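Milestone M4 deliverable, item 7.
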Amino acid sequence: MYSILDGGGEMGARMRAYDWDAHPLGSPDNWPQSLKINIRLLLNSGFPMFFWWSEDLYMFHNDAYLPALGKKHPKALGAKANEMWAEVWNELGLLVEKVIKNGQTVYEEALRLVLQRKGFLEETYWTFSYSPAYNDAGKIEGVFCACFEVTKSVVTQRRLKTMKDISDTMAQVKTQEQACETACIVLRDNQADIPFGLIYLLNSDGTEARLMGQTGTKLPPANALKIDIGSSVAEDMWQLNKVFIERQPILLESMHTRYTSVSEHDENNETVEQAVILPILRPGQNQVIGFFIAGLNANQEYNTDYLNFYSLLVGQVATAITNAQDKQEIARQQMFLTELFLQAPVAIGIMRGPLHIIELANPNICRLWGRQSEDVLRKPVMDALPELRDQGIKELLDGVLASGKPYINNELPVTLEHEGVLQQMYFNIVYHPLRDAEGVISGVIAIAINVTEQVTTRHKIEKMNTELLATNADLDNFVYSASHDLKAPISNIEGLMRELVEYLPASTLEQEVVQKLLELIHSSVDRFKRAVTDLTEVAKIQREAGEDVAAINLADVVNEVILDFETIANTSNAVIHLDMEPGVAIQFSAKNSRSIVYNLISNALKYKSPDRQPEITVKTETRPGFVVLTVADNGLGIDMADKNKIFSMFKRLHDHVEGSGIGLYIVKRIVENAGGKIEVESELGHGTTFRIYFKR
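Output delivered:
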């Protein structure tokens, strides 16, 4: 139809289909040649161009310019520029006036224009050139523009700067509080992307979020300084609980109707309508440590780029907070270790290098050395403690440093100077290699425990024990000798008594008083003989301890002893129950094991109750480290208040039967001499249980 409008893609087709006859410019057939040339030029260009013609600045543009129009397309074709771009005409009108009235060419780079092209006032940036457009008479009739949008580039550079500034400043922070405050200070310089920002961190148990930093002119209500994560939706104004659970960003809409604290206008007189809440996750983990709340610029579209910017920003903040937390934890651990080092109940010192320079010395080791810390720190150990020379200490330290093997010694004798006096002391000591992060040995850790008092006391006790052992040996020899020496006088007394009886006339012997005296004399001689025999037995046990130790089967010993008592058991109508573990053997003296079993079974039969049939139970069982022999009866029993007397020599708790009161004493001596022990349980009138622990 109009050949000058041929080609040009969509806009060429629209220009051809336009009802120009109804337009003030009229039919293209009547357009001046200069207008036609300019239109043909822009339609056939792949670069964004537009052309405004006449004093009303009617609009023409090509396909490449359509994204700049947004929703203004297609009505922009043929429209007046000042009407179509009314929202920015205050800026553009001045530039157009320079071109049309003054004939100037105007060039702008990254000019900020807030355009109404997507249904909201949008922040955009443009680089363009306005040039005069001449009519056929050579007069300026309009404006020709070649342009391109740089919004994405400008916004991206601005956001990258913010990211860089965050990165640069965060490297210096030491605490999580500093990290949050520093981040907010940096973000304050970019209110174009972040009208307001809030950083909340969770407490240690993850139940409460605390406001740690804020930026922008929009502050939250006072009740938002702390938010209970478990709160109801009404109380949780930022929906932190939802973000905590889902671990995903959420978008809050219609902010002005919900939160008066963020509904004020920003610097461009625009209301903050949206906010995004993002979880702050510990790097490399899915653990929420806090929340970042950011208002969205009403002049920007909330898209993937905007969300990605916030995600990267939160990632940097998370790294800074985590690093600060790690630094705080390291500092806390170092402080704890320092306190532990200083308060350690043992002496600890750290020496570095071949000279073993004392780097650390806790109060305990300084006390052991008899020095103040300032007298030893940063000095070679041999300079700080010269009395250690020629005691082999340096050689021990050199060995640990060279070999990397710990040196451990108990009761190491060391001579140290205390208040000008050399004293020999004893230490349980460990010299342990100190390694750096690469595993290289850099020094020695010395740990010492002063055992001087214990060693000195033990030496005294050992000396006393030696003297006691000598005394005991003498006593044993005396008892052994005395018991043998007393046998001859007793035999002589018995012989003299027999002679006396034979010498006395029958009439005298038949006298009651003589019979009584003879009976008493015989009884006394018998008791004397038993006492001497018992003393001989005690001395023999002490002298012969361990002489005939061999593998003994306890069951065999028990069976042999029971055979010895068969007649007595039958007479007493006693029942003996056996519960012996098969094959249980002990390393023990054969005659001593028999003596133990004999005494226990003898007592069980001897001290039977007259009110019931005697029952005796003998059993063995294996326990950790011991074989236990148990002998239990239902006899008279013992009052446990007299427990301490049971194993004493010549002590008897029942006097109605014959006995010397030495049997249990002998049993206890035999068992304990062999490294075992004896236990007793009893109840008066119900019976007694003895347990013998034979060491395995």
